[in-house]
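User: Sequence in, structure out. Go.
Assistant: Echoing your sequence, followed by the structure tokens.
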Amino acid sequence: MLIDMHLHEITYSSDSFIDLSQIVTVAKQKGLDAVCITDHDSMGLRDYAEEYSKKVDFPIFVGIEFLTEHGDITAWGIDDYPAIKTSAQEFIDHVQKSGGFSVSCHPFRQNNRSLEEHLLDVKGLHGIEVLNGSTPLEANQKALRYCQELGLKPIGASDAHRIGQIGKYATWLPEKVDNLKDFIAQLHSGPTKPAIWNGINYDIVEAF
């Protein structure tokens, strides 16, 4: 299964220029099996995405990109999220208690929204974005090194805000799933590998 795990949709991410129909159309064209919507500090698209997913017969999993005091973390499997900015550890603990899955996204991008060295301090984080489509290669490579050293799950994702970015990077999972519960279960139990769109299909990689 190939899935783009970090996308922003225009309704609830004010810096996005793509809607859900565009996201699904491009994802299908590139051979992706599912997408994740991770809007900034919002899961407002959840009900609409569930209905649209059934309509187009394409899995759409809604999570969140939550800005903590120490940087952005994407997460799935939570029913709610803190009303105010909290520490990275408090948010990770919240996800853990819900049985969800949390990822440090673009941890070394220089935008004041990244965990950076706080990766070494937090406990219970599940994965790290080692390929983020809006992050320089050197920062992604540093994220990969930390991911390997910490023994966390490597994640690939486009972080798309515009149509041309959709599916630039993705995550490979061993089995196809069509609902959020099974998606989270597989993230916890199985291996993950980052994947790179080469213009024709995806190259599944362990290093880059």
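User: And one key feature?
Assistant: Residues 2-204 form a domain with the TIM Barrel fold (CATH 3.20.20.140).
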